[in-house]
TrEMBL record:
It comes from Erwinia tasmaniensis (strain DSM 17950 / CFBP 7177 / CIP 109463 / NCPPB 4357 / Et1/99). NCBIfam families: 2A0105, PRK09528.1. InterPro entries: LacY/RafB_perm_fam (IPR000576), MFS_dom (IPR020846), MFS_trans_sf (IPR036259). SUPFAM superfamilies: MFS general substrate transporter. This is Raffinose permease. It is found in: Cell inner membrane.
Amino acid sequence: MNNETRKNYILLSGLLFFFFFTWSSSFSLISIWLNQEVGLRGAQTGVIFSAIALVAFCAQPLYGFIQDKLGLRKNLLWFLGFMLLMSGPFFVFVYAQLLRFNILLGALAGGLYVGATFFAGTGALESYIERVSRIAGFEFGKARMWGSLGWASATFFAGMLLNIDPDINFWLASASAAIFLVLLYWVKEVKVDALSTLEYGNPQKLTMKDALALLAMPNFWALVVFVMGVSVYNVYDQQFSVYFASLFSTPQQGNEMYGFLNSLQVFLEAGGMFLSPFLINRIGAKKGLLLSGTIMAARIFGSGLADGAIMISAMKLLHAVELPILLISIFKYIASRFDQRLSATLYLVGFQFITQLCASVLSPVAGYGYDHIGFADTYIIMGTMVASFVVISAFLLKGEKQITKVIDVPA
């Protein structure tokens, strides 16, 4: 790396670290917080996650198109940074009180804030940094690794802090967001050379017609089918912490152990983010997607068969293998099959949007399943669903092709 590339890598990695640190501090133990502090049951928690997913999948297409129009400008990231800064005040003074007063009103407020800030915001930030990484000349996975480390660092302490005072985690999130804003101020827009201009086109000339044209592409719908299957992992993770904590003698011990487990998983995930580009470059993005889906199906199905905290922990840790392969493969598949100017729209719509759409439908159903047939049987059903979609996707997804050059040089 030259000095400019190294500086961009460090600052953008820092943005990912503190974005995910803020998200983890606020949200990694949200199911336990809703269960133990607010007193919600599984089906009610499912409604909360459904509201978040509904807002996220409305915001994601908008964020994607806006970021593609902005190109390498930071306007949307500034908005996200200030939303992150409000984490502490929102969770401490607004969210808990609203949920106790009226669950539907609280779900609406939480959906608006959490969905727009974290679940839609992560896609906007990741797609921005992935675009810069291609132009600046470093692997996105090596930067995204720091996001995983940020999540793991916060989660390591989250369980202990929850037992002391849940509000500490929320105020820690706001402090992390302040550092995010400082780093964002230091990030300079990458200068696009003539070759990159030919490759990525002029984002300011992007139109809604260009974005809507994706809906007529079979390749886009093939990707959507795959994502519908793997979106189940999001639903699986939502209330896993409640199930895991129930396996211990006291809720406090379960809270701490889940914090340690989740932290270990994400530290391992960070290593996977660093290594997975080497694997995907070797086997190709399509095979990478199918491999991640296969691991996911085995993990979720195996969670239904696992007996005791040790075995269920082993199943959960497979997420550290699956997610890096999935994320890097998605970006590389998009880069090889579609118009580069629409990379943010494709990621936020083709992956994030579809994930949240499925989660909004499946979250209440999963919550009902947890309450009535138990976590284990619900996990077996989920794992079977993922496996079915992966088999179908093996026939629908196409192999890589040479990246399309968009000849659109600005005057």
